[in-house]
């Protein structure tokens, strides 16, 4: 969909199909359907319609299968309405695909929750005190200093080198 015309047609198809599903299609198998995206080929012959289903009963797979069957049976009516409202000679064929966006979002939420728990565990561990001293390394034994520092004795080799 590189051309602006194709993008406008795809946006219009999304609005038309959403309004049709809300107002005219009265199939009891149809759940709370949201049209998330429409992708149209460059020649405007194929339209892929992505949808999500909000299920209030908790049985996602059954609701998704029932909604897919209802959309497949209403495909002809939706295509004729799209052709009528767009005024196109050749209406694009419609293909309905369940959008994976909610599953991806749910997975990302789980990953972020796990990361947040690990961060909290690390922060809690950071506040704990270690067993033992703060500085575990041994210090060398220091002798008390006398009042005057002692000079190291001169070696005999240094004297011999000076004579030469």
Features:
164 residues; alpha+beta; GMP Synthetase, Chain A, domain 3; 5 helices; 3 strands; 49% helix; 15% strand; Ribosome-binding factor A; Ribosome-bd_factorA_CS; RbfA
How many strand segments? Answer: 3
Count helical runs: 5
Supply the helix-strand structural class. Answer: alpha+beta
CATH-assigned homologous superfamily of one domain = K homology (KH) domain
| Sequence of strands across the biggest β-sheet | 1-2-3
Keywords: Cytoplasm, Ribosome biogenesis
Organism: Nocardioides soli
Protein name: Ribosome-binding factor A
Pfam families: RBFA (PF02033)
What does this structure look like?
- The protein is α+β, with helices and mostly antiparallel strands and 164 residues long.
- The protein has a domain of 98 residues: K homology (KH) domain (GMP Synthetase, Chain A, domain 3, 2-Layer Sandwich), CATH 3.30.300.20.
- It is built from five helices and three strands; from the N terminus they run αββααβαα.
- It has a three-stranded mixed β-sheet with strand order 1-2-3.
- A hairpin with a 5-residue loop joins strand 1 and strand 2.
- Helix 1 crosses helix 3.
- It is elongated.
- The termini are far apart.
């Amino acid at each position: 969909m590189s051309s602006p015309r194709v993008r406008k047609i795809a946006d219009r198809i999304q609005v038309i199909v959403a309004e049709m599903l809300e107002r005219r299609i009265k199939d009891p198998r149809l759940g709370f359907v949201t049209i998330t995206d429409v992708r149209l080929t460059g020649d405007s012959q194929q339209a892929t319609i992505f949808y999500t289903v909000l299920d209030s009963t908790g049985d996602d797979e059954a609701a998704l299968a029932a909604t897919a069957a209802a959309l497949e049976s209403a495909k002809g009516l939706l295509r004729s309405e799209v052709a009528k409202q767009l005024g196109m000679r050749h209406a694009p064929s419609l293909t309905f695909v369940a959008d994976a966006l909610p599953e991806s979002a749910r997975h990302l939420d789980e990953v972020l929750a796990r990361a947040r728990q690990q961060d909290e565990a690390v922060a809690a561990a950071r506040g704990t005190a270690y067993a033992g001293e703060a500085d575990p390394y041994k210090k060398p034994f220091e002798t008390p200093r006398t009042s005057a520092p002692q000079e190291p004795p001169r070696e005999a080799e240094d004297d011999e080198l000076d004579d030469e």
